[in-house]
Known about the structure:
Blueprint: H1 2-22, H2 32-50, H3 57-79, H4 81-88, E1 92-96, E2 99-100, H5 102-107, H6 112-121, E3 130-135, E4 141-145, E5 168-172, E6 175-176, H7 178-183, H8 188-196, E7 205-210, E8 215-220, E9 225-229
Amino acid sequence: MFTLFFRGALLYVLMILVMRGLGKRQLGEFQPFELAMTILLADVISAPMESVSVPLLNGLLPVAAMFAVHSAISALSVKFDGVRAVVSGRPQVVINRGVIDRTALDKLCLSLSDLLEGLRTAGFLDPSEVGTAIVEANGGISAFADAAHRGPGTAELNVKTGYEGMPLMLILDGRVQRANLQRSGQDEGWLERLLQDRGLKPAQVYLGVLDTAGRLMLQLKKGGTLNISALAPERVAW
């Protein structure tokens, strides 16, 4: 019994180290220890599920071992930066002041094609427009335009935008989202009156979104959209 527990923990740690050695390109959006957990869990659980002759305990103990190690690694990663650097790695700058760092790409096992793909995902068709690019700890690429290709901000244009927060989904596929409605400071009667004035019922609305400017956007199931001035901006309560 202890052997199964020990083997599960050992294989899990070994998988983390192997995935770290493969480089960021292999990781996608997972941290190395999360990806290792996913792969091993699928393999460990499949054996007792496929064969009745395999004792259920043979699957449960390795899973318990991986869960224990995973929990320990997660806790240590939060508390100690050094542990996090070992199991997850650190962000790495691959473009600095518009210049691609070939050494950093080689260290991360990323090709130039991988980098260009990541830049396109970040919204840059032309790599010459990128001032800084960073490969994050989870393998994703964050890219930022250089000053010459960055659009001016509202502060630079002296434009007062007001408050902009998270829009609230009030209706999803015909169903009123009561928690979001309560968060908006309104009730179902208020929403129903808005819809009735336009000959609608919640069941006829595919998506209803209330933004922080007080605008309610309705996408109808039969097609088309409606934009309603539902609240005065000063009445926005979230």
